[in-house]
Amino acid sequence: MTPTLTAGAFREVLHLQTETRVDLGGGSSTTAFADQATLRGRVRVLKGREHLQARQTTGAGSYEVTVRAPLPSGASLTSASRFVWESPTGDRLLEMSEPPRPDPYGLVFTMLCAEREIATA
Length: 121
Hints:
Elements: E1 12-25, E2 28-45, H1 48-53, E3 62-68, E4 82-87, E5 90-96, E6 101-102, E7 108-116
Antiparallel strand pairs: 1-2, 1-4, 2-3, 3-7, 4-5, 5-7, 6-7
């Protein structure tokens, strides 16, 4: 039986970012993140017990993020990707704690993410 995707379940706005190397000139470079795609997804806060069930040792601010498949053309999910989530309380940075897991039917990708502080200039 193929799972159904409930209308309205994927209402959160997530900006998928990937790590890129930026040339600073003179032979030096640095790492930066660039927006790759804007996705709609589901973000669920994980409770302590769910961490134990998933055999994860994660700190506060752990989330399960689910996005629809297929991804937009040119976008890819890797364990080095991250999301900027436009949450109701302000933007939050979610870094992947594990590689993305596709469901058996190829409808969604699910990832465990940890919240990190957004650096301000």
